[in-house]
Amino acid sequence: MDAFEGHSFSKGTVIVHEGTRADAAYVVEKGSVVVFRTVNGRELMIARLETGAIFGEMALIERRKHKASVRAAEDCICAVVTEKVFWKLLEDANPFIRALVLTLVKSLGATTSQAIGLQSMLGMGIGPDTDERGR
């Protein structure tokens, strides 16, 4: 991942905003981030991503706006993979790997939507009296 430019983000900085157009994917090089959605004024935590994790790729692949926000859970460094570079890498990939990635992203998107719906129904999430783990 050294070919991509690393950006530093301070704890609490929102890196990706829900509802905005996707223009890059990110690789967590150091630290961690929290993926969340805001539903009825409460933050519903979707995932905590650690070093090596990728985010923003689903919106790029599906050519849509971000369905969730991502915030630095601590000071972190993320490699930024621009949309143009992302698509070039995917186009150059082995056809089987490309098809596998596209299929997995579609399945993960459906599963994530179901999980968010369940969290919302159960009233789970991050509120004023909870931490990033929903406690």
From TrEMBL:
UniProt domain Cyclic nucleotide-binding: residue ranges: 1-107
InterPro entries reported in the protein's UniProt record: cNMP-bd_dom (IPR000595), cNMP-bd_dom_sf (IPR018490), RmlC-like_jellyroll (IPR014710)
Protein origin, superkingdom: Bacteria
Signal peptide: none
Record-given protein name: Cyclic nucleotide-binding domain-containing protein
Organism name: Oceanibaculum indicum P24
Lineage, broadest ranks: Bacteria, Pseudomonadati, Pseudomonadota, Alphaproteobacteria, Rhodospirillales
